[in-house]
Design a protein that fits this description.
- This protein has helices at about 1-15, 90-95, 140-150, 175-185; strands at about 20-25, 30-35, 40-45, 55-65, 70-80, 100, 105-110, 135-140, 155-160, 165-170.
- About 30% of the residues are buried.
- It has four helices and ten strands, in the order αβββββαβββαββα.
């Protein structure tokens, strides 16, 4: 009987879910960073160059807390199934100089942070999936993040190259992690950017 209880507890421990939100302190700037751990993943809608190669945009919400000054960002992580970052020309990154995230009845227009990432208080790469790929930080409001988390379907249009917009469609859901992330944010009396 005692072995049955031990086996049951081991099985239950193995079934425990991984945390959907993670926090850590940047060792250089001492800001606290909180991020969802299960991103929304979108795949480029246009036909891929080959069946084995697809372009992806992974969206992860983060909060940077610098001694109570809290800022939210939607981090786009771009990668390709053929090569994690094969965009030698920079065309994918420049396409993300402006994005529209369609969340049903509303479109969230975002432009990236243009300065150095260290200005945000982030001095080393975020410990998020797809290491070595390019991270693009978009300042975003809590209301816009809520709209994304409540949407039924997400589409993204990268409009940085006006003559060649890139459309991405939802491929993998990360709303549970995004909702958990939003639930961990403190309520503020004043609007948050």
């Amino acid at each position: 009987m005692k072995y049955s209880a031990l086996l049951l507890s081991l099985l239950l421990a193995g079934c425990a879910t991984q945390p959907t939100v993670k926090s850590w302190m940047d060792p250089k700037s001492s800001v606290t960073i909180t991020a969802q751990t299960e991103p929304l993943v979108l795949v480029r809608a246009a036909p891929a160059p080959s069946m084995n190669e697809r372009d992806y945009a992974q969206l992860t919400a983060i909060e940077v807390n610098r001694m109570g000054e809290r800022k939210l960002y939607l981090v786009a992580i771009l990668w390709n199934s053929g090569d994690l970052w094969s965009d030698k020309s920079g065309s994918s990154q420049s396409a993300f100089d402006q994005i529209d995230v369609n969340v049903g009845e509303r479109t969230v227009a975002l432009t990236p942070h243009t300065g150095e990432v260290s200005e945000l208080g982030i001095n080393q790469a975020l410990p998020l999936p797809i290491p070595g790929s390019k991270h693009i930080y978009f300042p975003i409001s809590r209301d816009d993040l809520r709209a994304i988390s409540r949407s039924n379907r997400i589409e993204l249009t990268a409009r940085g190259v006006p003559e060649a917009p890139r459309r991405y469609e939802e491929w993998q859901d990360g709303r549970r992690s995004l909702n958990d992330f939003l639930g961990q944010l403190p309520e503020l009396n004043q609007p948050q950017s």
